[in-house]
């Protein structure tokens, strides 16, 4: 078997897995890998969580898909659940993070449209952001390497430097509709937006009649030890995109909004064939029940703290390999001195799976259920890799 029949869009590691359990992945040969990347923040409850496999198979025997032409009580129930747990009053279900952000962008523009300000279409975003791979979300992310060769960049996005409040203020004009930000940049290298900045963005939006959009596709659903990362700041958005962890591995995205912010999204204004599919609803409903439990979130904060502390000790011991640790809860970035791709590969050689990010960072995004012993094991494996990497560094210095 080879990957020749696939689009060659991914630089894949030469590894494949047959089954998983919790934070463990097994190859067909039976090799066990410690999965500290959780499908890039998707497998919120680990692999093959019994409550999720049960919810999925029970639903699979009843009904998979009906059209959004009909009422779907399971959608209504999950939307009510999410509204009850967040700032939001309304939810649109889709299938991915990029689609959730597309809906967020459309919702913001449409709000101004129905308010008699159709010229307000522009959205302010930040350097280093990642909002997805559709043409609009690529333009929102503004990363040249992803835009190249795909034609004219979708109009309507103004990008400012990360954390530059004055640049945001200066970018606001008569056509500005919204400000879009990840509370912690994930792909950008686990870069948290300081609480003061989020507060400042909220104030700017209120002052200028703009909508505040949070992209919590990566940071949401318990990842940072709060149900949503913005809860750390006390700042609430008007619109928010969610995906990744909410389906626990089943594809699902959602756009959440206040009743006011969603008021332009009238019948016929938006849609999705698969969005809110019954299988997705069954799994996500279970994920939300488990993750939103305050005791569960407290445990995530404890595990995150432990992981960060242990990694910080590793940074102290191997300063030629690692430069620092950052992030919140179980969204942890290990800033590297040596190329992060080399670190991820050295980890893989120790059967430890992590994933790279921008700014020369390697991310730890394990299942939120990871145990203390598994964290110890992960850091022990990371240390073995660090020993190897620092030896290579010494040889390089001697040569
Ligand atoms: C992953 C991600 C997306 C895109 O999600 P897809 O499901 O790949 O479309 C958007 N925003 C953020 C912050 C992400 O981490």
UniProtKB/TrEMBL annotation:
It holds the Pfam family Aminotran_3. Its EC number is 2.6.1.11. Gene3D superfamilies: Aspartate Aminotransferase, domain 1 (3.90.1150.10), Type I PLP-dependent aspartate aminotransferase-like (Major domain) (3.40.640.10). Binds 1 pyridoxal phosphate per subunit. One of its GO terms (biological process) is L-arginine biosynthetic process. It catalyses: N(2)-acetyl-L-ornithine + 2-oxoglutarate = N-acetyl-L-glutamate 5-semialdehyde + L-glutamate. Keywords: Amino-acid biosynthesis, Aminotransferase, Arginine biosynthesis, Cytoplasm, Pyridoxal phosphate, Transferase. It is found in: Cytoplasm. Its cofactor is pyridoxal 5'-phosphate. Pathway: Amino-acid biosynthesis; L-arginine biosynthesis; N(2)-acetyl-L-ornithine from L-glutamate: step 4/4. The keyword Disulfide bond does not apply. Coiled coil: none annotated. GO terms for cellular component: cytoplasm. Pyridoxal 5'-phosphate binds at residues 97-98, 130, 215-218, 273. InterPro entries: AcOrn/SuccOrn_fam (IPR004636), Aminotrans_3 (IPR005814), Aminotrans_3_PPA_site (IPR049704), Class-III_PLP-dep_AT (IPR050103), PyrdxlP-dep_Trfase (IPR015424), PyrdxlP-dep_Trfase_major (IPR015421), PyrdxlP-dep_Trfase_small (IPR015422). The modification N6-(pyridoxal phosphate)lysine is found at residue 244. N(2)-acetyl-L-ornithine binds at residues 133, 272. The keyword Cytoplasm applies. HAMAP family: ArgD_aminotrans_3. May also have succinyldiaminopimelate aminotransferase activity, thus carrying out the corresponding step in lysine biosynthesis. Belongs to the class-III pyridoxal-phosphate-dependent aminotransferase family. ArgD subfamily. Homodimer. This is Acetylornithine aminotransferase.
